[in-house]
Write a structure and sequence with these properties.
Shape: rod-shaped
Number of strands: 0
Low-confidence stretches: none
Number of helices: 3
Strand content: under 5%
Largest sheet: none
Order of helices and strands: HHH
Structural class: mainly alpha
Oligomer: single chain
Radius of gyration: 61 Å
Helix content: 55-70%
Length: 144
Amino acid sequence: MADFAHDMDAQRRLRAIEKRMADGGGAPPHNDGMEERVKALEEAVKNLPTKADFAELRADVKTGISDLRAEMHKTNIDIHKWMIGTVIGLFLGFGGLFLAMSNALKQSSPAPAPAIAQPATPSPIIINVPSSAPAVASSPATKE
């Protein structure tokens, strides 16, 4: 029954649309402003760029890209020069720091005390010991 009611409603709406169309009532309600939109689209299509316009654009882009490449190459060379200079500066700086620290360590070590002049080889100490003990003579005065 629901399908029959639905069909009846659809037929009633269709007859109302046909009647408006026959009376010259204009386009169905969903076509409001369609003519204006079509005219606007036709004008937009007339103003679309052509192949010649795109060729000019491509030529402009090619020259712009080649200029950009040349500038980037020059900048790249400048950056490399700065990098090499920086590395050389770092090596020189660290080398100077190394030399300064090594000299500072040498100067801060205690200086040796001035030594008394000693011969290169010390002379030997000689002790004379007699080979035999002398005989003790008895003295006559000591007899009692």
